[in-house]
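Good morning N.,

You mentioned wanting to compare the apo and holo forms, so I went ahead and generated the holo version with iron/sulfur cluster. This is what I fed in:
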Amino acid sequence: MKNDIRNISSDALKSWLISHGEKPFRAKQIMHWLWKQPVQDFDEMTNLSKPLRHALKSDFVLSQLHLVTTQNSSDGTVKTGFRLSDNEFIEGVLIPSKERVTACISTQVGCRMGCKFCATAGLGFHRNLSAGEIYLQVWHLNQIAEEHYKTGLSNIVIMGMGEPLDNYSAVTTAVQFLTGDEGLGMSHRRITLSTAGVADKIKQMADDGIKIKLSLSLHAVNDKLRSQIMPINNKHTIQVLAESLQYYHGKTNHRISYEYVLLKNINDQEIHARELAEFTKITPCKINLIEYNPVSGLGFEKSTEESTQRFMKFLEGRNLIVKLRRSRGADVDAACGQLANKFRNK
Ligand code: SF4
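and this is what came out, ligand included:
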């Protein structure tokens, strides 16, 4: 099987060029077509000779990503669906607010983490996205944002379908191009990676000097409840997670964000708020309370407004930085995995 040319490094590309009797400076031109002005066909690399384009075609493939659906929500959210070259389907969401446009992107087709409240979990795990596919998704979303909101992306949250730290190498390579001069040149500070809690990879992010922000989808702070709703907790327990977060903070000095989706009568009582306040003492942090976007058939409901306010006030009373994130795009299947479930087998 041919290698995706977006999976190889600039040095490997130079070696390939030399072995084909070409000058190594061509690598810079090719990198431009791969990342700066991404093309979907080698023949679009118009400043390369025909024989070189032919040789590239013989040895490599180009990752493909085609926009197949766009749904506009009444609240301004745009949900998009992309087909990949093997006919798999992924989702990306654009979320506008007063001062920014945020893209929520996918890193896998499906997911193997099995969180009980999540529509993507029902798809099972199909495959990892390549670095090229992750990058192209952002590139397309940036184009759509410019057309739709007349401004490009200001932020990216790696929080869509899939567990990004279960696809570490492709995600970190994509980030390198999203932030590098060869690609979109975005600031690291505007990219947030959200994990269900792959503890060893959280440590690796710190060791590898990955500068983007880290967010942990916590959702419960005692092992019994967390394992019930997030099976990953059976292996990466609260204690193991706490150690990895302290290690991460110790090395990076970054503040941790916690995502906590409020599920009615499951994790939204005072005892849970107390546990959350206690746990989050381990490092400087902020907490995002998230209004649940119900997925039919999963049996979870969003917390009442009264419980939500009580939960929030409890945390604020402990001097924690807390934000309530209202669910967006409910009329366009914006809960992660909902659209993909619809498009499955289409
Ligand atoms: S919430 Fe995230 S990690 Fe959990 S199953 Fe869904 S996509 Fe995977």
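The chain is about 35% helix and 20% strand.

Happy to go through it together on a call whenever suits you.

Best,
F.
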